[in-house]
Amino acid sequence: MPNLSVVVPVYRSEQSISLVVEELARELPKLADRWEVILVEDDGGDGSWRVIARLADQYAFVRGFQLMRNFGQHNALLCGIRAAQYEFILTMDDDLQHPSKSIGALLEKLLEGYDVVYGTPVNERHSPLRNLASVAMKIALQGAMGAETARRVSAFRVFRARLRDSFAEYNGPLVNIDVLLTWGTTKFVAIPVEHRARTIGQSTYTIGKLLTHAFNMITGFSTLPLRMASFLGLLMTAFGSVILVYLILSQLFAFRFEVPGFTFIAALVSIFAGAQMFALGIIGEYLARMHLRIMDRPVYVVRQQTSETEEVAQ
What we know:
It is a single chain. By secondary structure, the protein is an alpha/beta fold. It is 47% helix and 14% strand. The protein is built from nine helices and eight strands.
């Protein structure tokens, strides 16, 4: 059996995280020779860290990290991934929606020769608007990843630890684990997994946060918006040229066409001005990303951690 590290980002989950660990404690001995569970508390402001410290005392395989401030889910994941000790790394949420009994299916698929396996939910258990925002994010992710599997990504994923080498030096302010994984492999696959409905607490991933994350992701890891801005500029130039030629011909050949005055000109100027501002805005976003990289802000900062994990073997 393989050796497995499980990474769980924790945010305001003091009521559910102990149940997640208890479930893992029952399932992991059936799946791995050695294992560990890494809980990264992303400064949620509740009592999650106290629960994690207690779990680390109760279970030898639990390790806890508390971040200095709220860096975000993917930053917390990166912290746990870099701390993982074993050859396979599994990530999952802290809200009990990812069933531990499905980990075996993910590992079996990975051992077929893939490098990354996603557990895609059979049914999204969110509101229609939240599902729509999630689709938009996955479309953006596909542009950034350049992989068809992007439409089926999930926070419930397992991958080979050596993929960390491809982003070992990455310290950018924007982090997306799925995009970083594409830097090391193209062997992705997704399998359907039944996700459970959330029964404890409420999701902190709002529609606005999902859309913002999608925008940050596509401007942070892809040049597609710049290409769109260039295409828009070409389109507006072609449109203006057609209008100019038509107006010239109408005057030369005395078409019965009277050029509208201020309204026509104002509309035309507005179109071109809007296209220019859109292109400048896209360029500005990329300059902002460069500025943040130059500032060299840390991806995450650990405030404290529990004692090192003892090796667990069956």
